[in-house]
Write a structure and sequence with these properties.
about 0% strand, mainly alpha
């Protein structure tokens, strides 16, 4: 649009100069010519700004994709040479296959029984947070047998097995 505006302005100036040369009289300059030139010039500027924004978005997107693919040579060339390298990259480099599975997830059976909110009736809900493990994992688990020669010195556990409310403090015998 800017070139069209300049061409229109130049054409009108040349026509006015030709008429002046033929007739010898000065012809007035058409004011509509300059208004048309200004409209075409500013319209071209607006289109260039929109195109620049679109090109910036495309360039950032291409740089992000090249960085994700770790194509550092293309990345640096795109920073240096801009749109020409992006065009060559789109033509020459094939997209890498997606490693995600291309099939849908296995559908749930419509005949599956619903899971109850609390599966065990004698299970009491616990407060959120860390809960120390019991002294013995389960009753059927045998305690390890350690020989007296290799038995380590007894050290206190880093956490209490019972809360102070559950255990009576040791009282000295009288």
């Amino acid at each position: 649009m800017m070139i069209w505006g300049f061409a229109l302005l130049f054409q009108n100036i040349m026509q006015a100069a030709q008429q002046t040369a033929q007739t010898g009289a000065t012809t007035p300059f058409n004011p509509n010519t300059f208004a048309t030139f200004a409209a075409l010039f500013y319209g071209g500027l607006a289109l260039m700004a929109l195109g620049g924004i679109a090109q910036l978005v495309a360039r950032i997107g291409a740089l992000m994709e090249m960085a994700k693919a770790q194509e550092w040579t293309w990345f640096v060339l795109t920073i240096i040479f801009d749109w020409f390298v992006i065009l060559v990259y789109l033509i020459a480099v094939r997209p890498k296959p997606n490693l995600a599975p291309q099939y849908p997830a296995y559908p749930a059976s419509p005949y599956a029984t619903p899971v109850p909110a609390q599966p065990w009736s004698d299970y009491s809900p616990q407060a959120a947070g860390m809960v120390p493990p019991p002294a013995q994992p389960w009753p059927a688990y045998p305690s390890p047998q350690v020989s007296s020669a290799t038995q380590p010195a007894e050290q206190p556990l880093p956490y209490p097995l019972q809360t102070p409310q559950q255990k009576e403090p040791d009282k000295p015998q009288e």
